[in-house]
Design brief:
Distance between the termini: 46 Å
Helix content: under 10%
CATH architecture: Sandwich
CATH topology: Chondroitinase Ac, Chain A, domain 3
Radius of gyration: 16 Å
Number of helices: 1
Structural class: mainly beta
Oligomer: single chain
CATH class: Mainly Beta
Length: 193
């Protein structure tokens, strides 16, 4: 029951953010670029003292022949008292990998990024819907924010995705249907332009 309510709330808030106000920017074009470019990571607000040791993570055992879905819908309180909401919805299609794996999703504690474990490459593309809400994005322009693959060496690569949605006044960044062909670190960045 709790899972059903969480899914319904996630869907409601997802749809609620889809308005046509001038502060809303949606990049709905399919992003097919895979070129590496220079970006600056978007930082997460520091958690309040009561949340310092909190780690947002989820592990679930998935049979690759059946597929599955992992959903995180959590929050923490920042030092300034704001609620920072993190949502992750990872869809693993049947046949994406061989055998059974324990899949782990961990939200980065410093940057607006999500880590996926174990390191593996897939036979079929996984789909990711992810958002952060409650961030201070006042100093950012909607056209300069993007969701990317972050390599271990710190370099970044654009991903194929259906689009991003940035709502500056509410501090919301959403990626819709990012296509993952391997597990690694994926996160939000700002172009220095």
């Amino acid at each position: 029951m709790k899972t059903v309510i969480s899914i319904l709330l996630f869907s409601f808030f997802w749809l609620l953010g889809c308005d046509s106000s001038p502060d809303l920017a949606v990049n709905s074009t399919e992003n097919n670029s895979t070129s590496t470019t220079t970006f600056e990571k978007i930082k997460l607000p520091n958690p309040s003292a009561l949340w310092k040791d909190s780690l947002i993570t989820l592990s679930q055992t998935i049979d690759g022949s059946v597929g599955g879905r992992l959903i995180i819908d959590k929050y923490y309180m920042s030092e300034s008292g704001d609620s920072i909401i993190v949502k992750v919805d990872l869809i693993i299609p049947a046949g994406a990998f061989q055998g059974t794996e324990t899949i782990t999703i961990t939200v980065d504690q410093n940057d607006a990024a999500v880590h996926f474990y174990p390191a593996m490459v897939f036979d079929d593309t996984l789909r990711l819907f992810q958002s952060f809400e409650g961030l201070n994005l006042d100093s950012h322009s909607t056209g300069t924010i993007d969701f990317v693959y972050i390599r271990d060496d710190g370099s970044m690569e654009l991903l194929k995705k259906n689009g991003t949605q940035i709502i500056l006044p509410q501090g919301i960044m959403r990626v819709q249907n990012a296509k993952l062909i391997h597990f690694s670190r994926y996160g939000w960045v700002r172009s220095p332009n």
